[in-house]
Amino acid sequence: MAKQQDLMAKSGKHRKLREKSGQAADMAFEEPLHVGRPAVVNRERFLHRVNEILDSQWFTNDGPMVREFEEKVAEYLGVRNCVATCNGTVALELAYRAVGLAAEVIVPSFTFVATVHALSWQGITPVFCDIDPATHNIDPVEVERLITEKTTGIVGVHLWGRPCAIDALLEIASHHGLQLVFDAAHAFGCSWNGTRIGNFGRCEVLSFHATKFLHSFEGGAITTNDDELAQRLRLMRNFGFSGYDNVIYPGINGKMTEICAAMGLTNLECIDELVVLNRERYEAFQRELERTRGMRLQTYDDSQNPNYQYVVAEVNCEEYGMSRDRLVEKLHEEGVLARRYFFPGVHRMEPFLTSSGAPMCSLPVTDRIAGEVLALPTGAAVCSTDIKSICRAISSARDQG
Ligand code: T4K
Questions:
Q1: pLDDT (tens digit per residue) in 278-296
Q2: CA of 309 to the centre of ligand 1 (A)
Q3: Closest by CA position to 267, among listed 390, 380, 110, 140
Q4: Torsion 186-191-196-200 (CA) sign
Q5: Which pLDDT band holds residue 7 (cuts at 50, 70, 90)?
Q6: Which pLDDT band, with edges at 50, 70 and 90, does 135 fall under?
Q7: Residues 6+ apart with CB under 8 A from 9
Q8: CA-339 nearest atom, ligand 1
Q9: How far is the CA of 255 from the centre of ligand 1 (A)?
């Protein structure tokens, strides 16, 4: 508890409610409450590392902090290789290319658009797949239905940190000779049956964006137990250079900087306390929203080490008495900047809607869930009083119509 208070203090957290007219239901926050507010866990330790970087005059290109970060992440996940990158999107592009994805790849539409953009930037046609309504993850039954002679792979996304149906996907991939890559941007630290995410498929891709559970300002990584693949990824990340003046592979600049690694290392040191803090926030929302009709929080399975980074509700318009979109408007008026993650499904975004060559698709579960999900502000930037007020704002929004 003391450590968590410390984390909040280190985050510079202090918040005041502005009572607009004396009614509890009519409150607004002086500073807006954001989804994805990053924690600032140990300023002194970070600044110490920054000074080391400045003294060393080594700022990027596979420097000592990046190497240490890669080693510590690999150790934490129990995986043989971690290749750090400048962000998760470039990590996805590198991963897709390195495992040889081409032609058509099956991917969920209910994800952040980067999962799919990274395919189309590699000239790959995304074939959008529907999701399991219970988990919000790609539905293996639907995957099987979409496989054609042009399919080269499957991309699963562990949405909200909840693992995909990994067994079923592994089996389908192996049966049809397909590559399997996971977008694990949300799933740092989470497990699947006792093994940390990061160990599955050909490789898994992490994001260390500022809004993520483990962040490095911007950053990403590919993790894999395949040493040869990791070596190829390292070459591709650094323009294809193998030693001075010797390019042996088509590469790009996908490198992580030392300053990002310094932030990543500092946050990694506090990761266990951050889970505890996130979990407390999640449970507070659960208690407060328990009796709110039509508002169902997504659940987590403790045996899979969830990181509780996302507090996501499904708003059932009929039961709640108001649409999700109207509720979002009302919450924003109160300074609660809840988000419609992820709306609309990527298959309804351009260029995929009309011009990508993506086959016409009907994704009823994706469309329904994308119309109902609501991500709420959580993490070190909100306290228990904020949570009570957010939940009161949710109840009163409906009462006010
Ligand atoms: N795959 C998945 C499944 C992903 O969710 C993502 C990224 C990726 C791949 C790609 O990884 P990266 O290339 O990003 O490493 C945000 C993030 O930019 C994005 O990283 C993240 N997913 C996505 C879910 O959220 P936006 O467009 O919603 O960002 P924005 O600017 O609206 O900020 C989100 C919230 O965070 C706001 O409430 C403000 C708050 N915020 C943001 C930043 C940057 C802060 O409080 N402080 C900050 O420094 O995409």
A1: 999 999 999 999 989 999 9
A2: 13
A3: 380
A4: negative
A5: low
A6: very high
A7: none
A8: 38
A9: 19
Ligand 1 touching residue 34 (CB < 6 A): yes
CA of 210 to the centre of ligand 1 (A): 7
Q: Tokens 């330790």, residue?
A: 45
Mutate to test the pocket of ligand 1, among 209, 212, 373 (most ligand atoms within 8 A of CB): 209
CA 211 → CA 22, 45, 129, distances in Å? 34, 20, 26
CB atoms within 10 A of CB 250: 10
Please give the structure tokens belonging to residue 65. 């902090």
Q: Is 179 in the pocket of ligand 1 (CB under 6 A)?
A: no
Q: Strands (DSSP E) along 94-231, which ranges?
A: 104-108, 125-129, 151-157, 179-183, 191-192, 195-196, 203-207, 220-224
203-207 and 179-183 beta bridge pairing: parallel
249 CB burial (10 A radius; 0-12, 13-18, 19+): middle
Per-residue pLDDT reduced to its tens digit, 321-335: 999 999 999 999 999
The residues facing 127 across adjacent strands are: 106
Q: Which atom of ligand 1 is nearest to the CA of 217?
A: 49
Q: Is the CB of 304 under 6 A from ligand 1?
A: no
Take atom 39 of ligand 1 and give the residue whose Cα is closest: 34
Q: Which of 112, 121, 337, 378 has most ligand 1 atoms within 8 Å of its beta carbon, as the pocket-test mutant? A: 112
% of the chain with per-residue pLDDT over 70: 91
Alpha-carbon separation of residue 343 from 184, 368, 395 (angstroms): 19, 10, 23
pLDDT at 27 over 80: no
| pLDDT reading at 23 higher than 80 | no
Total residue count of the chain as it appears in this document = 401
Q: Residue for token digits 């000592």?
A: 64
DSSP 302: G
Which residue is listed with tokens 């040869």?
228
Q: How far is the CA of 90 from the centre of ligand 1 (A)?
A: 14
**Rounded Cα distance, 118 and 114, in Å:** 6
As a whole number of angstroms, the distance between CA 120 and CA 355 comes to 11
